[in-house]
Design brief:
Helix content: 25-40%
Number of strands: 16
Number of helices: 13
Oligomer: single chain
Bound molecules: S-adenosylmethionine
CATH class of the largest domain: Alpha Beta
């Protein structure tokens, strides 16, 4: 049994032919009424997944300190557009703002903009960020001009990807078409894809992904930073340097699912190609650093220690578990990476310098 959205997509394919995985993903996540991110609050224990800011307040606090330090380095512009892409429940931004209350002039200079398509999540963000008068936008391009401080945690992984498969003849694109019984199914294009020009040479059987939406957004952010000044920090799971492999995954209720299963009720995400984002940005970038190294360099061990001093033994164990989850190599520490995008050839910002990662 598919969903109403699954039937709509099948109808569209019956009328106009197979669609790319990227088009399928855009519909499944972003359909105005039935898309996954439009319908419900997907984060947290009741949802399909949890994210770093939902694991511990330390994550948002340290990112807040990073943003405030960059604002000081920029010469304290006022106003400065503080932008978050896909703020989820608003937890990261609330923690970042609480942690930076004491930075003289910072909050007075901030003009908060949230890029969010989900109506239920906008409601959660309004509650979490009451007092900061955010302005919401459907797209980054709608954020008004001016110096920029931007963060995006687990946002780029939700942007559509195309998938390719290398056959003996060359690269073909994987598409979503219809089986004889009218259900959705995956199939390769009969002919070779023009995207072969930007795909690496690889043996038959290889897989590759390209996110045109991710590259276009990185280019738009880079152009803004070049024009108006500022910094962006992109945190996500992904890879650097290799462009081969298929990473698109489907999750429903904290479990793996089929990519075509129950469109609109299933989360779809793909690993982020950081090298492609950095190249598309067209301005200086730093990293990607692993999330573990980045947070250690920002002093997460000291912050955990300070929190534990005021905590019960049980709360202390929760803090230790959260710390391990965020930075341990076998948890989020290595898979997640952090890329800083800036407007000047300055020294590396905090978190990216070559301090040995055990320096804290
Ligand atoms: C995986 S959640 C991450 C939430 C939050 N950053 C966190 O770390 O908890 C992705 C977020 O991006 C939003 N989102 C997804 N696709 C979007 C799009 N194309 N435009 C704007 N927001 C989008 C979702 O509604 C959600 O807030």
């Amino acid at each position: 049994m598919t969903t109403e959205l699954g039937r709509l997509i099948a109808h569209r394919i019956a009328l106009t032919g197979p669609i790319s995985i990227a088009d399928f993903m855009a519909e499944a996540l972003g359909h105005p009424r039935l898309g996954y991110y439009r319908r419900a609050v997907p984060l947290g224990a009741q949802g399909d997944f949890t994210t770093a800011p939902e694991i511990s307040q330390m994550f948002g606090e340290l990112l807040g300190a990073w943003l405030a330090e960059r604002w000081l380095a920029m010469g304290r512009p006022a106003p400065v557009r503080l932008v978050e892409l896909g703020p989820g429940r608003g937890t990261l931004m609330a923690d970042a703002l609480r942690a930076t209350r004491g930075v003289p002039g910072f909050h007075a200079a901030l003009d908060l903009h949230l890029v969010e398509t989900s109506v239920p999540l906008r409601t959660a963000q309004r509650a979490a960020l009451a007092g900061f008068a955010p302005t919401w936008h459907e797209r980054f391009d709608d954020v008004p001009a001016g110096p920029l401080l931007l963060i995006a945690n687990e946002f780029f992984d939700a942007l559509p990807v195309r998938q390719f498969h290398r056959t003996a003849q060359g690269w073909r694109e994987r598409m979503v078409g219809l089986a004889p019984d009218g259900t959705l199914r995956l199939a390769l294009t009969p002919g070779l894809t023009p995207f072969a020009a930007v795909l690496p040479d690889a043996p038959a059987g290889a897989e590759a992904e390209i996110s045109e939406a991710g590259r276009a957004l990185a280019a738009a952010i880079g152009a803004r930073l070049h024009r108006d000044g500022g910094w962006a920090l992109i945190v996500d799971y992904g890879y650097d340097g290799s462009t081969l492999g298929s990473s698109l995954q489907a999750v429903r209720g904290h479990r793996g699912a089929g990519i075509l299963d129950r469109p609109g009720e299933t989360d779809l995400s793909a690993h982020v190609d950081f090298a492609a984002l950095a190249a598309a940005a067209g301005v200086p970038t730093f990293g990607p650093a692993t999330q573990g190294d980045f947070l250690r360099r920002l002093g997460i061990a000291r912050r955990a220690h300070a929190l534990k001093r005021q905590a019960s033994p049980e709360q202390g164990r929760v803090i230790d578990a959260a710390l391990a989850r965020l930075i341990a190599p076998d948890q989020m520490g290595t898979l997640f990476r952090v890329l800083a995008v800036g407007d000047t050839r300055s020294a590396a910002p905090a978190g990216f310098s070559d301090i040995p990662s055990d320096a804290t």
